[in-house]
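User: Fold this; tokens only.

Assistant: Input:
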Amino acid sequence: MRADAHALVESAAAPFRAAGHFAWHFARGKLRYDPVFLALVTRGAFPDGVRVLDLGCGQGVLFALLVAAQRRFDAREWPDAWPRPGAGLAMRGIDLRLEAVRRARVALGAHAAFEHGDVCDARLGEADVVVMMDVLHYLAPGRQEALLDAIAHTVPRGGCFITRVADATAGARYAVTRAGDWLVTLVRGTLRPRFHCRPAADWSALLARHGFSVAAEPMSAGTPFANVLLTATRR
């Protein structure tokens, strides 16, 4: 990891010390080894003043990274090669795990709002950018459709839905991805998890049916997984 990226990650993880040893180490590990967070923040995915809704936000590591990015930019510690991070973001997250929401609230304080609840039942309100990482495959097909319909009514035309999914056609890498999901769900206490996965092309087609134009790109750099990032713009 480059020195500037490392410094950004350390800055983003630091507030989680207040939420406990586990929260801090989890944030550091997630931000260092999962490529999606740095990719989004260092590509300018969040323009000034947008309303960001993170569905399945966990303990809020994406928002912590966004806060740290703005802080480092203001301190003139932002690389010239990276787009300027968005300022004045309104950030809101929803997650099913109460303990994760508690950690997020402790670490982020007034920087973001966090709600405990099921994303399928929550009132999504309005947002310019909706983010949902590694969540859709946990939902049955009918609930996938219903949630995507709700998201399509949440973002305005030109708004964006950013999600990461696994490509079910990716062979051995897909098998590794599913094994990782099994492990995570078992650790969380789900003894017989069920996943509802699709090929990447089918995910894109599903989003297109809900009124989005979709751009897909691999998002597994440095990992053995078969993850694909879908950036869907509301038509």
